[in-house]
Amino acid sequence: MSHIEAIGHQLAEKLKKYSADYIEVHLEESQASHISYRGRELESIGRSTAIGGNVRALVRGGWGFTSFNNLDGLGDKIELAIKQAKAAGNEKSKLAEVAPVVDIVPAGIETDPVTIPLAQKKRLLDEYNEVIWQTPKLKTSVIGYADSYQKTVFASSLGSYIEQERADISLRLSAVAAANGEVQQANLSLGSRGDFGQVQRLHQPVQQMARHAVALLSAPQVKGGEYTVVLDPVLAGVFVHEAFGHLSESDFVYENDRLLKIMTLGKQFGSSELNIVDNAAMPGLRGSYKYDDEGVPSSKSYLIREGRLVGRLHSRETAAKMRERPTGNARAVNYNYPPIVRMSNTYIEPGSVSFDDMLSDIKQGIYAKNWYGGTTSMEMFTFSAGEAYMIRNGRVAEAIRPVMLTGNVFSTLKNIDAIGDDLAMNQGGGCGKGAQVPLPVANGSPHIRIQHCLVGGT
Q1: Of 397, 274, 267, 289, nearest in space to 342 by CA
Q2: d(Cα 199, Cα 297) in Å, to the nearest integer?
Q3: Per-residue pLDDT tens digits for 239-295
Q4: Do 249 and 308 share a domain, yes or no?
Q5: By C-alpha distance, which of 380, 369, 363 is closest to 247?
Q6: 236-250: b or e for each residue (b if 16 or more CB lie within 10 Å)?
Q7: Which of 126, 212, 231, 235 has the smallest number of CB atoms closer than 10 Å to its CB?
Q8: Which residues constitute the domain of residue 201?
Q9: Which region among 35-49, 335-349, 363-377, 434-448 has the lowest average model confidence (pLDDT)?
Q10: Do β-strands 373-377 and 380-384 pair in parallel, antiparallel, or remain unpaired?
Q11: pLDDT at residue 44 in the model
């Protein structure tokens, strides 16, 4: 039995004796390693361990929170959180009811990725860096690798006691090419729930990435304007996560009167073929888990079903305040933070249109793939594709410079007129909200076709 398990078992009954409407304790042990390169040089390499926890207490609607990296004197830390909550509370406490849970959830992997020797990981990344730099006209490159193995204990005054283990791996590579005053970039990112095999044998994709950065130097730039645009599963997944998913996080919704009016349940946002889901119960993805950080079981939550807004993502508190069911989406990036409403695995469900049929009646359009970056502001978004190609007479034609897509998310959802039959999930990158970044998530989609999409260009 680990140190945090021993303490957690002692806590389970003691929490009921404190004077508060609700108390929860999180304890965590973690290991992590990282390797990063800038250009040809190794920039940073190392391993770390951490142990700590936090206490949240609710009294008269007010929350108290304290985090710590020393597990001694836990009773004093509980009392401090209760004292803070009493000072903040002045109304009735509201939490959606959930049944108490006692469970142990293993990581479900054969090998903890952190235990793989750093030298072995470095050899692999050295190979990838060498592949990148075999390409002429490169200006610089960036490689960032990270892995972690985490064990958590959750105990609440409801009587819940949950042990969970999880592993995570992420890898992001980029190549920057330059010539005659022009600079272009290509990227590759992926991740897994602790399966190191997912980041091996990538030599050919890494080579293609570097060569694509160079090829972009001579690619033409599209004329700006409205186009019929086809998005690949990666870029469509990023769109649904960033532009729509964050608007479905209910802590953001119930505090914003304007958004409350826009995000009215039952409102039609797209065609009857459009279904958008957040599903932490999908096995094996970076955003998957059995219980969230409030001890609520994960679930498959429809946000849009047959084109209508039918749900949103909740913590126990937001579900109670909005009189909706809890969805198990309260998550914290680590023990230094309280859980807040976050996405897990967010995606558009597949439709029935083949990729070839989606292209067939487009006389002139754009095929946008992968992602580079972007920003959102309420319902407005701007995204940069990682790759782009012209579509001419129903076929993917010449490569063009990566394009920037801009618009209103609700108008864009209504303009989706074809949904592919080829769902794919992207596990690269991590989600940021507030100070809590990067949180492991996944997003995805089939290919989708969007009419009247505004594309930036010359």
Answers
A1: 289
A2: 30
A3: 999 999 999 999 989 889 999 999 999 999 999 999 999 999 999 999 999 999 999
A4: yes
A5: 380
A6: bbbbbbbbbbbbbbb
A7: 126
A8: 3-218
A9: 363-377
A10: antiparallel
A11: 98
Instruction: Let me know whether 63 and 151 are in one domain.
Output: yes
**CA neighbor of 232 nearest in space, from 346, 344, 359, 345:** 359
How many domains is the chain built from?
2
Amino acid making up residue 301:
S
Do 229 and 200 sit in the same domain of this protein? no
- Of 76 and 13, the one with more pLDDT: 76
Half-sphere exposure of 171 (CA within 13 A, CB side): 23
At 185, which CATH number? 3.30.2290.10
CB 379 within 8 A of CB 263: no
Helix segments in 284-347, DSSP class H? 316-321
Residues 6+ apart with CB under 8 A from 406: 380, 381, 382, 383, 454, 455, 456
Q: Are residues 264 and 339 in the same domain?
A: yes
Q: How confident is the model at residue 4 (pLDDT cuts 50, 70, 90)?
A: confident
How far apart (Å, rounded) are the C-alpha atoms in residues 297 and 281?
9
Are residues 437 and 307 located together in one domain of the fold? yes
Tokens at residue 26, please? 């999180």
User: What's the pLDDT at 163?
Assistant: 97
Same domain, 117 and 156: yes
The Cα 267–Cα 281 span in angstroms is: 26
Stretch 45-67: mean pLDDT? 98
Specify whether the CB–CB gap between 161 and 14 falls below 8 A: no
Query: Could you tell me which residues come within 8 angstroms of residue 380 by beta carbon, excluding any fewer than 6 positions away?
Result: 406, 407, 408, 409
Residue type, 254: Y
Q: Looking at 198, 218, 238, which one is the last position of a domain?
A: 218
201 and 236 share one domain? no
What pLDDT is recorded for position 12?
A: 74
**CA angle 104–108–110, rounded 5-degree value:** 130
Are 128 and 231 members of one domain?
Answer: no
Q: Which residues contact 182 (CB under 8 A, 6 or more apart)?
A: 217
**Overall pTM surpassing 0.85 (yes/no):** yes
Last residue of a domain, one of 218, 234, 260: 218
